[in-house]
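Dear all,

This email documents one entry for the complex benchmark we are building for the journal club exercise. For each entry we list the sequence lines for every component of the assembly. Then comes the predicted three-dimensional structure of the complex as a token string, followed by one or two observations. Please use this as the template for your own entries, and keep the labels exactly as they appear.
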Amino acid sequence: MSRQARFYQWGMVIDLDRCTGCGACVVACQAENNVALVEKQRFAEGRDMHWLRIERYWEGEFPHVRARFLPMLCQHCGDAPCEPVCPVYASYHNDEGLNGQVYNRCVGTRYCGNNCPYAVRVFNFLNPDWPQPLPDQLNPDVTVRSRGVMEKCTFCIQRIRRGKETAKSEKRLVRDGEIQPACAQTCPPGAIVFGNLADPDSHVSRLARSPRRFRLFEDLGTDPSVIYLKGGGHEHAG
Amino acid sequence: MKRRTFLKLTGMSSASLALSGCQKSNEKLIPFLVAPEDGTVPGQADDYASVCRQCPAGCGILVRVSEGRAKKIEGNPLHPVNRGRLCARGQAALQDHYHPDRVRQPLQRDGERGSGRFAPISWDQALTLLTERMAGLRTAGQADRLALFTPPLTGSLATLVGRFRDGYGCRQHLAWDWLNTEWLRRVSQLSFGIDGVPDYDLAEAQYLLSFGADFLETHLSPVRYGQSFGAMRQLRPTVRGRFTYVGARLSLTAASADRWLPARPGTEGVLALGLARELLLRGVFDQAALQAAGLEASELLGQLSAYTPRAVSESTGVSPADLQATATDLATIRPALIMAGDAVAWQTNGLEAGSTIQLLNILVGSVGHTGGLHFSPPTAPGAGSSFADLRTFIRQMAAGRIDTLLVRGTDPAYSLPPALQFQAQLHKVPFLVSMTRVLDDTAQMADLVLPEHSDLESWDDVVPDRGVSQQVVGLQQPVVSPLHDSRSFPDVLLALARRLGGEVQRSCPWENYPALLRESMRQRLGNPAEAAFQQEWLGLQQQGGLFEATPPANARPPGGTFRLPSQLGSSFAGAAEAFPLFLQLYLSPFFTDGRGAHLPWLQQLPDPMTTTVWDVWVEINPVTAQQLGIVHGDLVEVTSMAGTIELPAVVYPGIRPEVVAIPIGQGHRAGGRYAAGRRVNPLQLLADIHDERHSLPAWGATRVQLRRLSATGHLVAAGHAEGSYRRDILGL
């Protein structure tokens, strides 16, 4: 299907001028998507399981020092480097611009993780472990991944599905803002906006036309679906 | 069936299967290429409105409940405080409910105090034990030797506790925690003659100057102000609100500022007066507001003659250029708003410095105006205790005047600095009762532990005393049935009142706590008839509470007389020669005063500024670190007059060279598997120094020295401490 003919082209805008680095999105993501708990020792071994992380950059030296934040998640690339390297089609592209990951196909080659320039794919080196009664919190809409499986941000595909099913039962298209991934829903300063890029009037499309727009590693030709808006005012220019 | 028929049939069916396979090969292949959209069909869940209790801001929440289990917490879009948003702590509240180390039944001490050995008992036994003790005190005429320790209470719980206390005949109820608003109220009283907490109209401001107010982390109502901050930055089509932060440490909040003025600790007030002088000199100030405050410009200018840019720059360490640029912003951008917070409050000159900062609000005319600050409706009197009350309380403990202490909803054995002597005097309290969800440091010392319902299992009404300009009553309701044999605190009080009988029973006549809640809500609604109220009550449960639609017109001009503080000097504990560095403790953005440390989602959430996980550390300026031979991750020894602790070093570019900073919140002795034993509690470094004239705490007035111990600090950061990529290739 050509891009014009699609009803939905999911995308996200992250306004770095609004982002305060507060971390609410990170916890919201873990609560929604059954991301495993990671003990200190596992972090030390590089077994971090975040689907969404906040990168912090120091700029300058005291007293003219600043810190900048960049929420980093799967960019849902149009030409995703992770997809062609998967020998079992576990990493795939869907019609609506999402990079999916089929957990029960994944055989754990980790080629996709190696090939991802954004380092947003995380591998289950261990089976997740939640002491009782923490497993009662697990989201029934999301698969719990086991050892040997690669995982990453899905743009909360379970929420997209629910939104589309609701819309379908009411014989309409999904309304703008009706579907929100967990990170966008909770973001206090409203830095994360999710929506349909195929609709030129959607909030996300309007923001995506901002002159402050940029995408990460655009020169690699990955065509990401996540658009960042530059932060900082005139003090930060140059 | 004959063998022959069987073979025939099997042969036929396999042949037909093979044939159909050949005919429809595409249908077989394609489903494997077109993915199953990765997962299951989403189920149906219910959302229940309630209130978040992780901090006193009182954000409205929606809890997604599926098959009787709470699955996810979102912000309630109808709630005026947070309008659908939620912070990391609110998101993690689920784990408070499902915590694996929750106390599952009442426990009685079974061993040395503090040994952590407890024997499970029934609720009947526990209440009998407590009732007998309380009845004994009452009979002996010593009812006043019962004491309560809670965080500041609002709403019906404050009413109930007050009635219980009066009915029983005890006066000692300490309602104190780190997030209290005493300092802000006293500053407002001193500056404007208003006993209230300011609410900031940040979304409409075009310029924000924050003196140590970390409004994106722990200051007052972080979700509300976080949301307003986003709007201030980018909601208006042609205006981008600008933000300057004053403070010795670049906090998470300061990281979002356009300009950072790292003033020396204790000199924030001097900086404010320097800016005030500039505004007066340039003749750019709100004449009416100045008059209303009983000030006269030329007279004021005369009083400020000593605060020349050069003098201010020398005193504060802020460059004259930055000072002038900030003065120009303040003089030219309207509406401007000035905030003051913890880093200012916790100095020995906190009250004076706070009022000089409010002088700037008067000069820019922000009080009661759009884009400025407004005052919250005052909450019920007696909602919170003062710092003076806290110290009196501990003296009472030391004097043996407290026989039975009931601690609920707070963990003073962890969160009070040992210099205040609470921990040391605890042995003088013969009977300690802790009502808690996990065995925290206080419960560990208790003689009787009563398990409390989680927030998702309890009823309450929540009247925020901050971050609102209108009347807001959040309704907290149980969204799931209790996991363990726990009870709610108000219902335990009512059960005690019934068992004690007499006056206390008469003053607490409610059958259960929801009955009291309904009664209070009915009064707030103007006592409608039962049927009508029933309807309204259901509506309130759906909506999440009772919200006044619009804030009242708040044009109350600052009244009274503003008096310039006579002196702004600050003092520190520890001689400069022996203890060359200032210690700045700050409330962790995630654990606040330690109350979030038992939640693994918060423990594994990388600290936004240092990316450290599961830990506590000391932040050191790179230059200072180099002088002391310390590199990132080393183990260092931090010594003050009060104590010595060992922590890993974080080399932190955003801090003054003569200042080191440590987050509060880790170092619990108990508190469940995730909180216990994470190094040491930095509060033990605080010396016994206070603002004695005003009876206010001075948590930021201790000096320390640093010594490198070894290279093995075991500091763990998530990913790369300096970011995964070079900034320039990301295009930041």
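Observations: Chain B has a mean pLDDT of 91. The longest helix of chain B spans residues 3-23.
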